[in-house]
Specification:
The chain contains one helix and 32 strands. By secondary structure, the protein is mainly beta. The N terminus is likely disordered.
């Protein structure tokens, strides 16, 4: 299924698409390591985990965290009670070979020290390295690990370091810069985040520290592709997104809260894509509930534009470059964007699809969005491709949401799903699947 958004043509095309929309046929969910063909898109969908491997289900982290290594040959997933390890219910990080989805072992089997499996990052430039934070007796430490050579190296121990007149008791590895030089760390004391810091591995020094006590609430932070820090926090009214310099001395307010992914356009413009439940779509937009002002969509933003003073929640943001989903009928909710591949003209997103297959062309979908440009490089629209139906019930637990994350080659996406919509599956525990497609 392919949906183009190019002015009046798009609206007519989509109306025809909805008129012909049908509930896709039931599928039989295969065991781990086996595949099926999506009956709508024709793409192959393969199962990575099931209860025979992960007794309590499988999961992966945020969509904008790299699950695949730089060359796309291996991925890592988190197993809730890996049966082969008889681990008594703890989380295990598993290394998976991409070609046949064979599980090569757990972190402990492959030379990893005590690491937190929920905060691991493949190096963006080296296919053999993983970065992670320590756990247990390694708390407060930053590590690098080569699972193929079964070797690990401690990069830095921050435990006990005095920052902003407080001692670091623990930390959280929030992100790794796309050149693998900088690490974004949340320092903790008394069980609470008190500082956000940028550590420069090359200089072995903290190059910036942000006092989190200035915010009423702090949510998350990531690096952008041009080495800035994107922080989601409440500075006085509600959660908003701020773009900081690496030393935190410069700040731009870009948007409201939302799950973000960051990329570069062909002309080098740094942009972010975010979910946007209700902004910017015209009243007569087919998106959302008929005759209702709720219009789900997404947004592409220029990260550099300060939106201070923009009336909220009314009116377009000054940084807004493109509104997504307004011309696609249905109650879809685009969320968990992924722009971790090497392409500069597109990204991936999942849709919760509240209204059902019959009225929403992108319901329960793993989607690819490819941006369209004019001769001057300005965005003039987008093309949305449905890659597969994830078939996960949006009313399930949070980790049942698809949370699509894709390899840098733009050929495969990993997602979590209960596979309970239009399937014969009776196990509602979320497990992991991949969908294959042409770049």
């Amino acid at each position: 299924m392919n949906m183009r958004k190019t002015g009046a043509f798009c609206s007519l095309w989509l109306l025809a698409a909805v008129a012909s929309a049908q509930v896709p046929p039931m599928i039989s969910v295969p065991p781990a390591g086996k595949c099926y063909t999506d009956p709508v898109t024709g793409n192959r969908v393969c199962r990575v985990t099931d209860r025979s491997i992960c007794a309590n289900g499988g999961e992966h982290n945020y969509s904008y965290w790299p699950a695949w290594n730089q060359s796309g040959t291996h991925l890592v997933v988190v197993c809730k009670r890996w049966t082969a390890a008889r681990d008594g219910g703890t989380l295990h990080l598993l290394l998976v070979r991409d070609s046949d989805l064979a599980i090569l072992g757990s972190g402990a089997m492959l030379g990893a020290p005590a690491l937190n499996p929920l905060t691991v990052f493949w190096a963006w430039t080296d296919p053999n390295l993983i970065y992670a934070q320590g756990s247990g007796h390694n708390v407060g430490q930053l590590w690098q690990w080569n699972p193929f050579a079964r070797k690990a190296k401690k990069i830095k121990d921050f435990y006990g370091l005095r920052v902003l007149d407080r001692k670091v008791a623990d930390m959280f590895l929030a992100y790794v810069s796309f050149d693998d030089r900088y690490f974004l760390l949340q320092f903790k004391s008394g069980g609470r985040d008190f500082a956000l810091a940028v550590y420069d591995k090359q200089a072995d020094a903290l190059v910036g520290v942000l006092d989190l006590s200035q915010f009423r609430a702090y949510d998350e932070a990531v690096f952008t592709k041009d080495n800035h820090v994107w922080v989601v926090a409440d500075a006085g009214a509600k959660l908003e997104s701020f773009r900081y310099s690496l030393d935190f001395t410069e700040r731009v307010r870009v948007a409201e809260h939302g799950h973000h992914a960051h990329g570069l356009l062909p002309d080098g413009t740094p942009v972010a894509v975010k979910e946007e439940p209700n902004r910017g779509c015209a009243a007569d937009s087919p998106s959302g509930v008929p005759n209702n002002p709720w219009k789900p969509s997404g947004m592409v933003l220029d990260e550099r534009v300060d939106t201070t003073g923009t009336p909220r929640p009314l009116g377009p943001l000054k940084s807004q470059l493109l509104q997504l989903g307004c011309n696609i009928p249905g109650q879809h909710h685009y969320q968990h964007y992924s722009w971790n591949n090497k392409q500069r003209d597109g990204f991936f997103v999942s849709s919760l699809g509240y209204s059902g297959f019959e009225t929403d062309p992108t319901a329960f979908g793993i989607l690819r969005v490819r941006l369209k440009f004019d001769a001057a490089g300005k965005i003039i629209g987008d093309e949305i491709d449905l890659l597969a139906h994830h078939r996960s019930n949006p009313k399930g637990p949070y980790l049942a949401y698809p949370r699509a994350t894709c390899n840098q080659q733009g050929t495969r996406c990993l997602f979590s799903s209960t596979m309970t919509v239009q399937t014969d599956n009776t196990d509602h525990q979320p497990h992991l699947y991949v969908v294959d497609f042409k770049p």
